[in-house]
């Protein structure tokens, strides 16, 4: 029972970055922009959160720096792709490659190391966990949903809030129309570029929160490549969910569960097998994509031969 409860607890913990990146990415996708730079944005924000905390000794400065970094990265993506009509894949790949090069270069120049920056003298990950008195009193359930971080609980409200924005507000209608028929949107006076920019800012903020959750709340340190392809995995979740926030978030939870399962299994197998198990989340992507796309391919195949 304890093993099962621990798995559920870790599933929630592991799913938070996926949910945050996915819900922001859905807005960008529904606005008609293919944003593959979410991986790089998350990496940059994780780095900014730690280095500014380390330099100033104040966590809140790192949080603000990460949020600003998320907005900056996506603003750069907006100008090169939407305003200047640059190739989405080229610009996104460029940002992702920069995220792999700039942080280690700065670490080497400032601190003489390329691999990591430990800020545990200012950040205690154990103190990031919130003990909620009301939930603590509930048997079993408290073992799963209590003692998570602030961003974990905030994610619940962000996901539900952005779902409401998507389907219950005028802005949400503008986002969907912009992505589905931009010419029609412009004909009725909708400023499609402005909508795309706002969606990218939303994605930048959610990616920043994901990066902060990984580096500041969970580890208290930055390590090179710590976003661990979460941005790319979330693109798969968005695609599998057909750009629907609810469905995309469900797939994000699936990927979070698989990562948690991998970490639990690692405690019971030798190191060599543990390294091999690192491929489980990526194999899951292929399996899920096949599960979603094969029925569509069969349907289109039959249509082709009719």
Q: How is the topology of this model organized?
A:
Layout: H1 2-30, H2 38-56, H3 59-83, H4 88-111, E1 116-118, E2 129-130, H5 133-136, H6 141-145, E3 148-149, H7 150-168, H8 170-180, H9 182-187, H10 192-219, E4 221-223, H11 230-240, H12 245-266, H13 271-276, H14 280-305
Antiparallel strand pairs: 1-4, 2-3
User: Largest beta sheet, briefly?
Assistant: 2 strands, antiparallel
Rg = 20 Å
User: Given the C-alpha coordinates, what overall shape results?
Assistant: globular
* Averaged pLDDT: 90
Strand order, largest beta sheet: 1-4
Short summary of the structure?
The protein has 306 residues and is mainly alpha-helical. It has helices at residues 2-30, 38-56, 59-83, 88-111, 133-136, 141-145, 150-168, 170-180, 182-187, 192-219, 230-240, 245-266, 271-276, 280-305, and strands at residues 116-118, 129-130, 148-149, 221-223. The protein is globular and about 55 Å long.
